[in-house]
Amino acid sequence: MTTEYEYSPGLAGVPAARSSVCYLDGQVGKLQYRGYPIEILAENCSFEEVAHLLVVGHLPTAKELASFSAKLAAQRALPESVLGTLRSLPASGHPMGALAIGVLALGMSEKSAPQSASKSTADRREIATRLIAVLPTIVAAADRLRRGLEPVAPRADLNHATNLVYMVSGAVPDAIIGEVLDAALVLHAEHQMNASTFAARVVGSTLADAFATIAGAIGALSGPLHGGANEDVLEMLESMNVDAAEGIRAWAEDRLAKKEKISGFGHREYKVKDPRAGILQTLGVKLFEELGATPLYGRATELEAQMARLVGSKGVYPNVDFYSGIVYQKMGLATDLFTPVFAIARVAGWLAHWLEQLEDNRIFRPNQIWTGEADRPFVAIDQRG
């Protein structure tokens, strides 16, 4: 007897886990990490605090934060074997590929990696801390090596965000860059059961080690329908070649009429403006006021205004990718580093879900709806027409 199942493309609306990591209500634009509104966290907490919240389960005390930050700073360095792997990669490859390879290479060099799924919760958190600490170093080293430069060693006296820019550029950035990037990392740290988080939980449910789990999530994030969208937004804005309201409206109408994608607009969950987009927009203004404006910001705000008139009634508004690329570009980051920076933030959320998955694990094994032929007669090869 064939069992009938209700098919939901992309598993839309299908619960895949019970979780206390992130709450999201897209109808009203509510996003909370472990019960704390994203607006409050972005304004008041460092990325290190939020990473502690996600991985450990509560906001740290001052003593706990100092200890956690010190652990992160102490574990940023890469072994020479991993640097050697990064040196062997082609310069033409995308940094997301280098990041996934770097994480897997690191897992092969870490004694704790093979048993990471079977260890105690406390030991798993230590492994999670190592991964959060080292992702910026992998990204920065891979970026410099492809540019023919030597990697810059991490500095323990810089916070997570500032140290990332330092390792990429070789210079300590302006304070405003560190401040804005820190808040941006908070905004990108977690977002419930998105594609990459689901991928992390699926890989983790097999009891694969934490490094393989995170490499799987990185692969999912790399796609243009997920983390790669921020690169598409910047390329779209740069290629528009119009700035006046009338020209931008005509451009948007033409794309909509052709049913072509307008990058940075719309979200599977949100029917209002993504709360993270609004915060990033405010951070961008603060950055531009101090370091100088970028013409793309005016183009972006006008496109947002025109899109609100054209499709706002359908619940299509800017998502977090719409303003993030503009902000990262102003910081001096290469366009193809935008998604790796996303991963540097989101790894905290992935690991929180990995830890939660292993608390009461059951391997993911969904079903399917069969659409092919069954019980087909076999024909020998010399009788096939």
Structure, explained:
It is a single chain. This protein is mostly helical. It has two domains: 18-225 and 336-359, Citrate Synthase, domain 1 (Orthogonal Bundle); 229-330, Cytochrome p450-Terp, domain 2 (Orthogonal Bundle), CATH 1.10.230.10. It is 56% helix and 3% strand. The protein has helices spanning 38-44, 47-56, 62-74, 80-87, 95-109, 121-146, 160-169, 175-188, 195-205, 210-221, 229-240, 245-257, 275-291, 295-311, 321-330, 338-359, and strands at residues 22-25, 30-33, 36-37. Strands 1-2-3 form a three-stranded antiparallel beta sheet. A hairpin with a 4-residue loop joins strand 1 and strand 2 (30-33). Helix 1 (38-44) packs antiparallel against helix 8.
